[in-house]
């Protein structure tokens, strides 16, 4: 990754300190499936075994109350979409979501001795698996937000400095690395839970399609870099969708549902909190409303309404 000019680093030092807090938990069109999707288990919903995997968007890192069953390292909320979905559909939930998780943390311990590999929660008796994952691979979200936030401060929100500095760096990483990692992770889930219905959610929009007046104070991204970050997220969600299609998983598309609910919107409308002056203690993550809406969308796609 290229280094910002010295003067830009100086101006952005304060912002970077705030943004760095997100690194603790941050991360981040339906094609025919290559394998037939397994039908939901026919037994009553109340008896179905549901395992929730994934990163901070699954864990609702930054939303209170914290889940007392989780390691504090995961910053998992008991108001995350798996809990909402399980309560609605009467599912027996085993939640192993963890903030900052990458696809490699499915098969390997994210925090050895403290947080086990997420795949350990699966078995041949698992009926349903959901996840949001991929945004932390290559540090996609945190690197992009840090880089574009710092560049935006340096230009006082004008132009597209982040795009000029980094070009296709982030999207290239998603296309070349994250897609393959997602396919491997989903295949591993299928191997551990062969009879389960497996669903992977796309990431709800973080930024709008174009700059919104007044948003720079809360989300210090230059106006010309808003479409740049939107395109990065489009690439990430496309990689998630293609990996789902390649492994017979269900893709839960959040794009249409979350449009107009990005971090630039007011409280009560936005599903994602901004960098500054937000309601979550972890910025650039879904709030409780956003998690509830992710549960709504997953329930609709999976037939759990």
Give a description of the structure.
This protein has helices at 6-20, 56-59, 81-89, 104-107, 140-154, 161-166, 169-192, 226-247, 255-258, 288-302, and strands at 49-52, 92-95, 128-131, 197-201, 250-252. Strands 2-1-3-4-5 form a five-stranded parallel beta sheet, sandwiched between helices. Helix 1 (6-20) crosses helix 5 (140-154), helix 3 packs across helix 10 and helix 7 packs parallel to helix 8 (226-247). Helices cover 39% and strands 7% of the residues. Mean pLDDT is 88; it is low at 1-42. It is α/β, with parallel strands linked by helices. It has one domain (6-302): 3-Layer(aba) Sandwich (Rossmann fold).
Helix share, percent: 25-40%
Q: Could you say what the CATH topology is called?
A: Rossmann fold
Q: Which residues sit in consecutive blocks of at least 5 with pLDDT less than 50?
A: 1-42
- Global outline: globular
CATH architecture classification = 3-Layer(aba) Sandwich
Q: Sketch the major β-sheet.
A: 5 strands, parallel
> How much strand content do the residues show?
5-15%
Order the strands across the largest sheet as they lie in space: 2-1-3-4-5
Q: How many discrete structural domains?
A: 1
| Helix and strand sequence | HEHHEHEHHHEHEHH
Q: How far is it from the N-terminal to the C-terminal residue, by CA?
A: 44 Å
Rounded to the nearest angstrom, the radius of gyration is 19 Å
The class by helix and strand makeup works out as alpha/beta
Mean pLDDT: 88
